[in-house]
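User: Hello, can you help with two protein structures?

Assistant: Certainly.
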Amino acid sequence: MSLNLVDTTYESYANLPEYISVNQVLIDQIDLDGVRRVADLACGTGLLSGLLLDRAPDVAICGVDLDPEQTGIAGRTFAGRGRLLSGLEAFRAEGAKGACFLTQSADELPLEDGEVDLVMIGNAIHLMPDKDKFLAEVARILRPGGEFIFNSLFYVGTFPEGSEPIYTEWLKQSAIILDEKNRARIAAGEPPIPRKRGGGGRAFAKGWLSPEGWAEKVAAAGMTVTSVGRSESIISRSGLQLIGAYGGLAEVLMSGYPVDIAAACLFEGVDRAFDEMGIESVPRYWMEMKARR
């Protein structure tokens, strides 16, 4: 695949049936009794918001994400479905239905104390730079008795036994492809692929937590954990390609390189790794957690 043809947004992966299904599991666990206003944090392109509105069309959702590209996609998608709210004022209006999307940090929310009945975050809590601050903000905006629910593919325990070598091979092949691209550029008289050192590693620099570690932090923020679950997902060849192509992950896995080039190498690296190991998919565990304020 050409370096210029990789979609680095989260939209393509978020639309995969295998990804939708594991997030549907999360949405199906929500107790909707008394839920009218919802915060969807690190909402990306609005997958969880859409799934929740399909189940509960009368709720109002405030989606928040730091990336304007993702909130822009979400806004256009929901406008096309007739489900877009114009902003916080519309979200707060009596009888509001639908979702608004704000480009904002999830640990400094423009929501009032106790304003929402439900807070949800899909596969992004591990990226929070200050997890304690983030959880304190979740507890602040939740009304007493409100529910907090999240899942994550990046935690201690995510790799089924024997699966880690597959991911190692993927990164190795992606690095080989990057080197090949670099050598080809130099041979053609072009400058080498630039790399800016010291700016990446967000996900790994912060460290993954175990389910027990997350439960402790949630409790310390003043919430009571009500359930901890685990579900298995089978990631297909095409699914892992789209994960690798996502710019937010590419900038971590191939730190310092231009995101479009890193994403393209990770996309192509899946084919080589899967061919080398003679596989078509790889398993992964998801963690799901629910808590009450």
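That covers the first. Now for the second protein you mentioned:
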Amino acid sequence: MKNQLFIGLMSSFLFLNCSSNNDENNEPNPSDSQILLSKVTTVYYTSPSGPHTSITKLDYNSQKQLLKITSETTTSVLEYDGAGKPSKITYHKADGTVAYYKTFTYNGDQLTMIKKIDPDTHYNTTMTYTNGKVTGTSTCESSSCPIPSTMSYTYSGDNVSEEISVSDGIGGPHTNKKEFSYDNKVNPYSLMGKYFRMIMGGAEFLSQNNYTTVKISGKDGTGNWSQIMNFTYQIEYNSNQLPTQVMVKLDNNDYAKYTYEYITQ
């Protein structure tokens, strides 16, 4: 799942515009009134010591561009180029010092590379597209990069139906598969500015609708798939048909709960 990424990286670059669902690029229009995600509260139920709560807050400028994401351990500050595309994100530790930053390279309106730079290492992520949709990523965590980590996406309409990840590990590459089903309501991440959706990657951010189930499988030594986990999602919506609470269950046990709060700007 994207839980840890969501909390530590940004927990959402979310632009929710109820009036712009038909906009080809899903980009915020500064002249329109926008519904913006302002706060996400996540409760995890997997710790033996009891539930753990994490809160992420989002701040915007007058152009409805996301400027800052604040969590309990990290503050992320965004910069934009003259065309309004994200050019850099700087991640600050709780004490205010810089932990690392990321820069973004584009080819026209397509994000082609993400480069992470920190004191110890750097990595590059390159992206591939089919019919304008992100269909794959390749990430190198060293300059030599003998075995990049890859992610590939298969779509059914505007939703990712299957996500396959391959990463290096002990004994060789590890391959996992996620299979998704969806409701017919707007996923908060689907109305995020398209560049942030590409930056985040993953089915949760690239799909139009909300998960109802996620099945995770791994490939065994014989090359066959074996199911590892099965998640179900119970969703509550507001009057705008946007999710306000999502309860995630793993094999009928509480796994996580997401609560979303919005502002109009």
